[in-house]
Amino acid sequence: MTQQISPAQESSVIDQAPKQLFIDGQWVAAESGRTLDVIDPSTGQVLCSVADAAEADGWKALRAAERAQADFAAMAPRERSNILMRAFELMHERRDDLALLMTLEMGKPLAEAYGEVTYAAEFFRHFAEEATRISGSYQVAPGGGQRFLIHKQPVGPSIFITPWNFPLAMGTRKLGPALAAGCTSVLKPAELTPLSMLALADILKEAGVPDGVVNIVITSESGQVMEPLIRSGIARKLSFTGSTGVGKKLLEQCSEHVMRTSMELGGNAALVVFDDADLDKAVEGALAAKMRNSGEACTAANRIFVQRGVADEFARRLAEKMAEYPMGRGVDDGVRVGPLISAGQRDKVQDLVEDAVSAGADVLLGGEPAAGEGFFYPPTVLTGIPEQARVRREEIFGPVAPVAAFDTEEEAIAAVNDTEYGLSNYVFTNDLNRAIRVSEALESGMVGINLGVVSNPAAPFGGVKESGLGREGGDVGIDEFLETKYIGIAL
Asked: Domain Aldehyde dehydrogenase spans what residues (predicted)?
């Protein structure tokens, strides 16, 4: 969806957005009175200021979640389901404001923001349906004389830490299953993009979520505020989406009380194009896998391997298509590439491009930051990527497509698996046997076959190796928030 947004509309949605902490069902200022600025990455200017929590505010939120846990766990599954469905409906009713707010704070094109609102809401609908399907079992003991009753119960108060790149969907992907299972929570959104999650809190309150069940804490001191809560033993579950480095530190903190964890960490996704693939479909798939969110996605195609016979033609077509992507403020009509989230992220992308070029790569398109205000980096295609280039090992998180050639299937599999990460990969081929063979050999939690976007609320999302633990979404997503209890009954 595209439409021209006026400055008055921008100001209105910012003015009306909640800007305080959401604790125990109430909007409250930070105890210290501190605030932090939210920056528009397309201009570098301040959009607004929001409450900036300290440790004391975090404790208030966790205590509220602790008090609310027993009653919420006892709530009828159908009632929890109805709350989630109402939240789903409200998100669609307010999609215009949610999308615009997201574009202003994060920078993504408005059409993509609308897509994220739809995607984010779908987690509530999916888990509204799962809430009434939580089941156990009853069986006769193999040796007789006993019965086994298997019962599932909510894990308990949970802590969620979400990233800036999908500021709405990463929250609903965690809150959906938690609410369906009967778990209360404290959620800390990224300080760069807090407005979307605060707007969601308003929706959840209207949808009927009881006070204390969902608490939102924004802070510029994430470690100081969240670590004591994690180490407290009050919360029994942590779900984190972010970098592998931070995830490892959080796992250490969780070990103190053997806390349940879900970790969606770094990705270094590869996209493999075999010479029997439909090149038009492969290029379209690569555009989806690379350019979604301007490349700022953990599932983005970070490395593109193309069989040598079609490598030059593929790179040429990809560059032609990427050159057609208009770049600008996400609120402007027709824009397909918005700014990166910060000046630091833009500089990191440029550093990776310069490293690849100095190692011998060729620039087919782009390759330099855009001039002017905002944190823009143009669509870029690199070819002839040598093995020592850092783009073969590090997440780019930008609209840069590095293309390298390979000769054999075995060579491609080895190159894809030559990373500590294992979140998602993509394979383009018209050979069914090869598709199955290669997808089973790739070391990742998800594989797209002739498909550039694998994320779906109805499918399990997660990685292997240093890309994380656990799964979100699908029919297994709710299990991350349930404990299995065995009750033995003597007869």
From this structure: 27-487
Region label for 135, one of left (φ > 0), alpha (ψ between -120 and 50) or beta (otherwise): beta
Q: Which residue has the tokens 């850092």?
A: 390
Residue 368 annotated to the active site: no
Instruction: Say what angle helices 195-207 and 95-106 make with each other, to 10 degrees.
Output: 160
* Region class of 219: left (phi > 0), else alpha (psi between -120 and 50), else beta: beta
Nearest-angstrom CA–CA distance, 216 and 187: 5
DSSP code of residue 81: H
For residue 326, give both structure tokens.
Answer: 């208009």
Q: Where is 79: in which H helix or E strand?
A: helix 77-93
pLDDT tens digits, 203-225: 999 999 999 999 999 999 999 99
Range of the domain at 278: 270-456
How many Cβ atoms from other residues are within 10 Å of residue 208's Cβ? 14
From 211, 242, 265, the end of a domain falls on 265
Q: Does 141 reside within a domain?
A: yes
Predicted confidence (pLDDT) per residue in 419-449, tens digit: 999 999 999 999 999 999 999 999 999 999 9
DSSP state of 70: H
Name the catalytic one among 116, 130, 264, 472.
Answer: 264
